[in-house]
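Course assignment 3, question 2. Fill in each field.
Student: A.L.
Task: Predict the tertiary structure for the chain below.
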Amino acid sequence: MREGKVREKNKTWSGGLGILKIMILLFFMIFLILPLVSILLVSFVGEPINLPGSLVDPLIRSATLEKISEFSLVGYQNLWRDSRYLSALMNSLKLATGVSLCVTLLCLPMAYAFARTDMPFKKTFAALATVPLVMPTFISSYAFMLMFGQTGWVNHLWRALSGEGVLFEVQSMLGIILVQVFFFFPYALWPMVAAFRASDSALEEASRNLGAKGGITFLGVTLPLAGPGILSSMLLVFTISFSDFGTPIILAPKNLNLIVVEAYREIAGFFNWTGSAILTVVMVGVAALFFWLQRWVIRGKEYGTISGKPMGSGGMKGKGLNRFLSLYTLLVLLVPLLAVGSIFLSSIATTWGHDALPDGYTLKHYATIFSNSSGNILNSLILAMGALLLSVVIAVFVSWFVVRRGSVSLDWLSSIPLVVPGIALGIALIQTFNTPPLQLTGTALLLVIAYTIRRMPYMIRSTMGTMMAIRRDVEEASVSLGASPFMTMATVVGPLMLPGIIAGGILVFVTVIKETSISILMAPTDWAPMSLAVFQNLLRGEFYTASAMSIVIIVLVILLQNLAGKVTRDQLY
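Answer field:
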């Protein structure tokens, strides 16, 4: 009798969770796969396609099939013939290649210093290295304009030292590269640190004992051992640079075509569905290729050694070397710190541009944003909270299905947003939900869904790690004692997953607050978040209020990231 009840309860458990799994799959299919398939079809047929309508309305379905029957590669052929599109692709590839190489070279000494030396102020430098991550890239770009623009304080100092003109033209390819290098390097730094730590330092000691000098040992032993990790970091930075929208939209001059900017202009300025669709497909393809290469490098190579001996932590020694690496790291970190300082000075300046420092100081810009732009701040918090709640619900159950049931489909679907640039996802969603029956374009709901899809992988990876640590027999005990499936999830699994949920949730909240491309492309006027308000203020020339709003974003992100770090540490101890 008891065994029959257990079997019946297990059947109910499987049935209820089966329905839930179908609902989650439908969410991904409707709001991720359908838009991507739709934008792919548009790129081939040259006209907007209403796929949601085709599923429910025979007349729309007939019109859609007629359009698909006119399938053509003309659009892609024109991509290679249109000098504007082709140059945009080539320029973006050159930009991403240059940034990935520069970041790798920039990070090599710092990564080695963090991993293998007793460099002074190591903990302080590690904390400061997170500063670039808290600044949205378009705010970083504006900071560089304050520093290196025609009236920037750096150029004031340059001319005071008898220099002429400006150090370099900030609104140029060089300016974009410098911003991305100094604000993307943390994405490569810490994986490279891990690569150096994972390699066996005993081989380096053996090399030095055999008479090799420090430089020869580093080039001949240390770098090859850490090579896969370094290459993986380079590919990751390439993908991030290629997909970045915030920096080019601020610093790209009119004569410099970049694919993300062209795609934005095609949809937002010209309503050219064909051109924007083709550029979106190309962006997704390139990003997916390099993301796959990065994963392949990690999976296909190892930087450990089979020696039977414990790994040491030694490296090149010497006070002189440590001091040099400490000074080098300080100089690299000084650039983003000065950028933050420039934004802050601008936020409290009465006027700034005649001299290296502001003409006067005031807090009226903060008073202005809290009185006139409080709605933008509230919008950001509400939208981020909506994305957070939706992410939590979906991520918890996705983690359960992947870890407990081995759901390959959900694991694969939840990873797709990692390879879709924000501007590409926005264009796909706008095109797909621009007509009935799901006419969601221009609504806050679609904006929250876009945020959720874009940032949900962070939540899923956090909750998945926590789920792996929960013993299966805890859930089985709850079911056998009579708890319903959802009661078990709410009272047993949920509380045990809480640290991972909080850490992942804060990360989702932070990244949504900073989100640029989705906000600029999709946010309706009534729901304009802080990032869009800053962007619009910059376009209108309201630089001081834009700076004040930027500081509010930065402070909010720093506080939330510190909270996430504390939660994560509490989870570990």
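Instructor remarks: Residues 302-313 have pLDDT under 50 and may be disordered. Residues 84 and 257 are 7 Å apart (CA to CA).
Grade: pending
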